[in-house]
Every structure is written in C-alpha cells, then in structure tokens.
Design brief:
Helix content is 30%, strand content 38%. The chain is of the alpha+beta class. The protein is globular.
C-alpha cells in the first residue's frame, strides 16, 4: 500500500534514510512528514520505502527515494515509483526532476526504466563526487 507519511512513521523513515542514502537530509524529511513537501510511503507491514517530493508546479523535484536495505530487490522501489509517478501525473505535474550520483549505475538504470533521462551534468554536486540531473516529462496523452 502506498500512502502519505504520518508523524508516527518518523522513526522508521529516519532509519531507512540513514541506512539507504549516502547523503541524507534529515531536516527535509522531518518537514516533509508534516507536508508540504510530500512524502509517500510504501507500507509493507510498516514503512519499507519512501519518496520525498518537493512540489513546484509544474515541476516536482524528487529529493529522496529510499528503500530499506533489507527490502531491496523485491520490487518495492518499482511499486513506489509507479505509484508516485501516477500520483504526480494525476495531480497535473508536467515534469519530475531528481539528482543521482554520476557513477551510480544501479540507480541510473532504475530511473532510466521509468523514462528519466540525463539533462545536465552536476560536477561536485555530492560531497564525494559528481552528480547528474535526471528529468522525466509526462506525456500529455498518458
């Protein structure tokens, strides 16, 4: 089940954030749980993954996307991304943007599978490396 985050999810989401992300942003997650930004949770008997989106119509910026490490490889990220993109499209967003590590082939492949493409190189974006800006436009016929 995909749902909006609740304050009672905070501890579990912080645990996912710190274990799954190289450079977490705890303050943004805290604000996002209360909304806006939007935090969607994939609930599998408790939060197993989340997506944190900063809306700036018509663009949505996917600031964090994380699956609990013990739950990775089970299709939860795919289910969450499908649900997120559907929700954003239905809400009238035209574009979704996100940043990824330039050398993270697994993440880049995952996002490529959802129609994201590289829009810009971001040298020095991360504390220890370069990033890329990935963009996905919604097809108005979807």
């Amino acid at each position: 089940m995909i749902r909006e985050a609740r304050p009672s999810d905070a501890t579990r989401l912080r645990a996912i954030q710190t274990s799954a992300l190289d450079e977490p942003w705890p303050e943004l997650l805290d604000v996002g749980i209360e909304g806006p930004p939007l935090v969607l949770v994939l609930d599998a008997g408790g939060p197993a993954a989340y997506a944190l989106v900063v809306p700036d119509r018509p663009v949505a910026y996917l600031a964090e996307f994380a699956v609990a490490p013990a739950m990775q490889g089970q299709g939860l990220g795919t289910a969450l991304m499908d649900g997120l993109l559907e929700r954003l499209r239905e809400a009238g967003f035209e574009t979704v943007r996100l940043t990824a590590r330039e050398d993270d082939e697994r993440a880049r492949s995952f996002y490529d599978g959802f129609g994201f493409s590289k829009a810009e190189d971001l040298p020095g974006h991360y504390d220890d490396g370069d990033g890329v800006l990935l963009v996905r436009e919604f097809d108005t016929s979807e």
